[in-house]
Amino acid sequence: MIKVGIVGGTGYTGVELLRLLAPHPEVQLTAITSRKEDGLPVADMFPSLRGHVDLAFSSPDKADLTECDVVFFATPHGVAMAQAPELLAAGVKVIDLAADFRLKDQATFEKWYKIPHTAPQLLEEAAYGLPELNREEIQKARLIANPGCYPTTMQLGFYPLLKAGIVDAGNLIADCKSGVSGAGRKAEIGTLFSESSDNFKAYGVHGHRHTPETAAQLQRFTEQQVGLLFTPHLVPMIRGMHATLYARLNQDISNEALQALFEAQYRDAEFVDVMPFGAHPETRSTRGSNMLRIALHRPDNGNTVVILVVQDNLVKGASGQAVQCMNLMFGFPESTGLKQIALLP
Ligand SMILES: NC(=O)C1=CN([C@@H]2O[C@H](COP(=O)(O)OP(=O)(O)OC[C@H]3O[C@@H](n4cnc5c(N)ncnc54)[C@H](OP(=O)(O)O)[C@@H]3O)[C@@H](O)[C@H]2O)C=CC1
Ligand SMILES: CC(=O)N[C@@H](CCC(=O)OP(=O)(O)O)C(=O)O
C-alpha cells in the first residue's frame, strides 16, 4: 500500500480523486487538505464518501505531506510549484493537476499564467502525464505535469495523423466544448446556474492557455511545427467534453487506412476507444469513466478529416488520468482502480 496525500480536497478534481482512490486496492489515503475546512470530516462535506473516507480535512500547513509516498495537487496554478521542491527532496513523488510544470519554457508559462515561476529548475524534469503518448517517461518520473482537459482530447485526436505525416500540421483546427465543472467548484458568476444553464457560448477565442500547451506537446511528440486554432465553448452540462477536430490531408489515403492508423495507434491503450468510422461519440458514454472515445469522419470524401473526441473532463481530463499516472509511477497495472463503466443516462 502507498500513502497518498491530496492538496485541494474540497474542489471538483480533489473529490474526484477521492472517489477513485478510496476503493483503490494499493492506496491508503493519509492527508487531505483544505485551507477553510480544517478539522471537518471529509464525508460531512461529501456524503457520497460516507463509509469510504474516514479522514478529516487538515489545513495545508498542518498536514505532514512528507509522510506520503505521493502527493496530488488538485489546486490552482502556482500552488504545486511552491511545495514540490521540498516534497521531492524528501523523496515524495508529486502529481500536479494544474499547469505549473506543463510548459517546458518558463517565459511561455509566465506569459500565459501571469505569475512568476518559482521552481523553473523542475520544468525540464517534469514528465507530461499523458500515458498514451508518454508512458515510459511517466514510469520513471518523480514529478508529473498532468495535462489540461482540452489538451488531452486534442493531442490524442490529432497525434496519429501527425505521426503518420499525412496532414498539414500547420493548420489544425479544434472546436471544443466543456461542461461547467471544468471551471472548478469555486464561486464565480459565470458558473452560476442562472448564467450557465440554458445558455451556450464560446470563450477565449483570441487566446486560451491550452493552445500553447497542446501545440508544444504535439511538437515534442511528433517533431513537427504545429499550428493550432483552438476555440473552447461552455455548454450547459455538468461533466463532459466534446472536441471536433479538423485536419487537412496532404495526400490521398482511403478511409479504411485512416481508421487502421488510429486502431493501430491505440490498440494497447486501455482508455482510448476508437469507434467505427463515422460514429458519433456522446459525452455521456464517458461520464464517470476514464475512457476517451474517438471517431473519424471524412465529409464528402474530401481532403478534410474530422476527428470527434469525447471524455469526462474530471476523469480522463483530470483525476482519472492522474491516477493512471500514479499507477504507472508505482508499477501497478495501469487500469487499477479505473475500470468504472460510464453512467447512463
Ligand atoms: N475542473 C476540471 O475539469 C479540470 C481542472 N484542472 C485543474 O486542476 C486544478 C484543480 O481544479 P478544480 O478541482 O476544478 O478546482 P476547484 O476550484 O474546484 O478546487 C481548487 C482546490 O484548491 C484548494 N486551494 C485553492 N487555493 C489554494 C492554495 N493557495 N493552497 C492550497 N489549496 C488551495 C481549494 O481548497 P480550499 O479553498 O478548501 O483550501 C480547492 O480544494 C486546477 O489547476 C485546474 O485548472 C485540470 C483539468 C480539468
Ligand atoms: C470550462 C472551463 O472553464 N474550463 C477551464 C479548463 C479546465 C482545465 O483543464 O484546467 P487547467 O488547464 O487550467 O488546469 C478553462 O477553460 O479554463
UniProtKB/TrEMBL annotation:
Instruction: Please provide the record's keywords in A-Z order.
Output: Amino-acid biosynthesis, Arginine biosynthesis, Cytoplasm, NADP, Oxidoreductase
Catalytic residues identified in the record: C149
Q: Where found?
A: Cytoplasm
Can you name one GO molecular function term for this protein? N-acetyl-gamma-glutamyl-phosphate reductase activity
| Top-level taxon of origin | Bacteria
Catalytic reactions of this protein: N-acetyl-L-glutamate 5-semialdehyde + phosphate + NADP(+) = N-acetyl-L-glutamyl 5-phosphate + NADPH + H(+)
Chain ranges of the Semialdehyde dehydrogenase NAD-binding domain: 3-141
Task: Name any GO cellular component annotation.
Answer: cytoplasm
EC number(s) per UniProt? Answer: 1.2.1.38
Which pathway or pathways does this protein act in?
Amino-acid biosynthesis; L-arginine biosynthesis; N(2)-acetyl-L-ornithine from L-glutamate: step 3/4
Give GO BP annotations, semicolon-separated: L-arginine biosynthetic process
Q: What does this protein do?
A: Catalyzes the NADPH-dependent reduction of N-acetyl-5-glutamyl phosphate to yield N-acetyl-L-glutamate 5-semialdehyde.
Regarding protein family, the annotation reads: Belongs to the NAGSA dehydrogenase family. Type 1 subfamily.
Q: What is this protein called?
A: N-acetyl-gamma-glutamyl-phosphate reductase
**Gene symbol?**
argC
